[in-house]
Design a protein that fits this description.
It contains three helices and eight strands, in the order ααββββαββββ. It is of the alpha+beta class and about 140 residues long. The longest helix is centred in the N-terminal third of the chain and has 13 residues.
């Protein structure tokens, strides 16, 4: 029972808004959502990147960092979440339950008329889930 409760707890926390797709959303919409629905994340404005325009959020326990990359007119074009490796099993379980699994590192998520790909990239100390629009030639739906 303890494992079941713990797994459920992590699934609720793992992805910032697992049913929420931010691609095409204005920066202000993302800020509002993160403030009201993901209030365990706070906006981090300590770093400046001259190449990318983005919003960076870090959770209270500093186990997750979400980066929302914006166009010149403040529209999210893609985003990624960086996780501590301890969260890998629960993130994969969340992706498996909400998206169509294509491979061990790729899931497809339908959002309205659009389909996004979620790409899992593993590193030594962390892993990343990148969400971006699927290129029609890349993956058959």
């Amino acid at each position: 029972m303890h494992k079941l409760l713990l797994s459920g707890f992590f699934l609720l926390l793992v992805l910032p808004g697992p049913a929420q797709n931010f691609i095409g959303r204005k920066a202000e919409e993302i800020r509002k959502y993160m403030t009201t629905e993901q209030n365990n994340f706070s906006l981090d404005e300590t770093t400046v990147n001259k190449v990318y325009k983005y919003l960076k959020y870090v959770d209270e326990m500093e186990t997750r960092t979400a980066l929302y990359f914006l166009s010149d007119d403040d529209v999210c074009t893609w985003y990624k979440v960086v996780y501590d490796n301890d969260l890998l099993p629960s993130v994969i379980a969340g992706l498996d339950s909400t998206c169509r699994k294509v491979s061990d590192t790729l899931w497809l998520e339908k959002s309205g008329e659009n389909t996004c790909q979620k790409i899992l990239k593993r590193q030594d100390w962390f892993f990343t889930v990148i969400t971006k629009p699927v290129e029609q030639d890349t993956v058959k739906q």
